[in-house]
UniProtKB/TrEMBL annotation:
GO molecular function: peroxidase activity
Descriptive protein name: Osmotically inducible protein OsmC
Entries under NCBIfam families matching the protein: organ_hyd_perox
Domain of life according to the entry: Bacteria
Alphabetic keyword roster: Oxidoreductase, Peroxidase
Amino acid sequence: MEKVYTAVVTAKGGRDGHIKSSDGVIDLDLRKPKEMGGESGAYTNPEQLFAGAYGACYLGALGSVAKKDNIDVSEATAEVHVSFNKDDNAYALSAELHVHIPGMSLDETQQLADKAHRACPYSKAVRGNIEVKVLAV
């Protein structure tokens, strides 16, 4: 496999820490969300970062599969819900991708959304590891 691009981000301090990318574009303090015992404030957390990255990558895959069928998805949105779950003292993530394509029926959207889910690198990375639902909305 040929590497096309490698992102480098250094993390310190875990969920109550800091992340910084090698190019300095990302330079953020992290805090646990209030629901996990954290403090309120203008901080992000790993689940928000993963949801944003997953959504962006997924829309890229949606654009690629739609282009093959000459379908314009430039106004499509993917609202990604990433949950931090606990079950029997074990922790696991789960995700839901709520996909909306203006002007397209729910059935057509679902079919295209499922194709994109099969093609998306993030979906491939988590397949079989976390529960993911893709829903046309």
